[in-house]
Amino acid sequence: MKRIILMVLRNFWRVPFAWFRLLYHAAHVDKYTEEEHYKLLKYIDHMANTGGNLVVDIHGKENLPEKSGYVLYPNHQGMYDVLALVEASPVPIAVVAKKEVENIQFLKQVFACTKSFMMDRENVRQSLKVIASVTEEVKKGRNYVIFPEGTRSKNGNTVGEFKGGSFKAAMNAKAPIVPVALIDCFKPFDSNTIKKVKVQVHFLKPMYHEEYKGMKSTEIAAKVQKEIQETIREHE
């Protein structure tokens, strides 16, 4: 909470302008291109990070596929994860998020601008519809973030179990799967301090359809989980 207050106070004169621009973009989604929406989000995100004494150390941008239409699979450490990913990703990304956060102000507008999807983890039918929708959007060339743990890890940089079903959208779209290792992303909002924090985002080498087409979703999940955990151990 202290850091969020710091973010706002240090950007006090920018906040009203940025907030009303975000509201307008969210209310007029079709008026802007995906790139125009993302440019605004990256501006707000960078403003918040700078004001909040946060540094995002980015690695492996060269591993991102040249052509859009892929799915990022990061470990999940907390609410700050998406802010780190937006800072790190040079191209627009959308998120598959849990239904419980869909009406939180600011997040609600961000989800609208990015055409993100909300998943009800207790409703199998709705979850399958979301997977189908994400599959179609990825086929069209949009990039999504899916957290394969399903919920945030509460063990710092220790990765939880990755669920095979999380990879169905990428598999069905025959899209590249990009593992992403997030390091120390739990610290910005979990630690009750405003001291400078550096988080790390590592884009790992993607798995293309030719590589994983003969694998089960659970096998893909285990492989991605292992690569991310090994990267975290190497760099934390």
Give a summary of the structure in a few sentences.
The chain has helices at residues 2-10, 15-27, 34-51, 81-88, 107-114, 124-139, 168-173, 187-190, 209-212, 217-235, and strands at 54-59, 71-74, 94-98, 117-119, 144-146, 177-183, 197-203. It is of the alpha/beta class and 236 residues long. The chain has one domain (56-235): Glycerol-3-phosphate (1)-acyltransferase (3-Layer(aba) Sandwich).
**CATH topology (level 3) name:** Glycerol-3-phosphate (1)-acyltransferase
**How far apart are the termini?**
25 Å
Helix share, percent: 40-55%
> How are the strands of the biggest sheet laid out side by side?
1-7-6-2-5-3-4
Give Rg in angstroms.
17 Å
Please mark out the parts with pLDDT under 50 across 5 or more consecutive residues, or reply none: none
Domain count, please report it. Answer: 1
Structural class: alpha/beta
Main β-sheet description: 7 strands, mixed
Order of helices and strands: HHHEEHEHEHEHEHEHH
List keywords for this structure.
236 residues; alpha/beta; Glycerol-3-phosphate (1)-acyltransferase; seven-stranded mixed β-sheet; 10 helices; 7 strands; 15% strand
Describe the structure.
The chain contains 10 helices and 7 strands. The chain has 236 residues and is of the alpha/beta class. The protein has one domain: 3-Layer(aba) Sandwich (Glycerol-3-phosphate (1)-acyltransferase), CATH 3.40.1130. It has a 7-stranded mixed β-sheet, with helices on both faces. α5 (107-114) links the parallel β3 (94-98) and β4. The longest helix is centred in the last third of the chain and has 19 residues, at 217-235. It starts with a helix and ends with a helix.
